[in-house]
C-alpha cells in the first residue's frame, strides 16, 4: 500500500492510502463524519475490496492526516474531485463507495462531473437538514463506543461555522443528474440517517439502480455486522452493471 498526499484546488492536503493490487479498475472509498481511512473498519473493508479491485481510501478534510476543517459536505466535493482526478490518470474504470455523508459526496460528485462508472451509496441522507441523528439512542452510541479509537477521535476537526452557515447541495436535488449505475444500501434500524432518506434517493434516481435494506443500523456498521453479505452484494453489483453513458 502506498501512502501519498494530494493537494486540492483550494489548498487542502489530502492523505491517501492507495492499494495497488494490479487491477485496471479502482474503487474510491469515501468515509463519513468522524471516521478515517485508517480506522479498523475502513482498513478491513479496503483490504477486502483490494482482492477484486485497486482501492483508494482517503481522509476527507478535517479528518485523520488530511489538513483543514470538515464542512459537512459544503467543501468536501472538492476533495472527491481531487482524488477522482488522480485516479483517472491511472485507471480505465472508477467506482465510488460513500458512507453516510460520504454517500452524499459520491452522488454530488457524479451529478456534477459524470466521470464515474459505478456508485455504492450507503446510509446516504437525502437532505442534510433532515438528518435525524438521534445520538442519545443506545442503537447509536453503543456502536460508537464499540468502534472507539481515541487517535481517530482526536484527529477530527469540524468547522462549526460551516455546519451552520455554509450552503450544502441536497442529494435529493441532484439525484436526477446521476447517470452512473448506483447501488443504494440502508439500515432498517438506523438511528442516525433513517432509511427513508436512502430509499427516497433510490426512488428518485433515473439511472440503473438497486436498493438493499439491511437489518442493521448505520453506514460502515452494516459492513461490520454482516461483512460477507455486504461484500457479496457490493462486488456482484460492480461486476454486473454497466454505465451506458461511459461505455
Word description of this protein:
It is a single chain. By secondary structure, this protein is of the alpha/beta class. It has one domain: Alpha/Beta hydrolase fold, catalytic domain (Rossmann fold, 3-Layer(aba) Sandwich). 35% of the residues lie in helices and 19% in strands. The chain contains 10 helices and 8 strands. The chain has helices at residues 40-49, 76-88, 101-113, 138-146, 150-153, 160-164, 171-174, 196-204, 220-225, 227-240; strands at 2-7, 13-19, 25-30, 54-58, 93-99, 118-122, 182-187, 209-214. Strands 1-2-4-3-5-6-7-8 form an 8-stranded mixed sheet, sandwiched between helices. Helix 2 packs across helix 3 (101-113). The model has no long low-confidence stretch (mean pLDDT 92).
Radius of gyration: 16 Å
Number of domain modules? 1
Question: Considering the protein shown, what is the CATH homologous superfamily?
Answer: Alpha/Beta hydrolase fold, catalytic domain
CATH C-level class is Alpha Beta
- Structural class, from secondary structure content? alpha/beta
Going across the biggest sheet, name each strand in turn: 1-2-4-3-5-6-7-8
Report the average pLDDT across residues: 92
Helix content: 25-40%
Extended strand count: 8
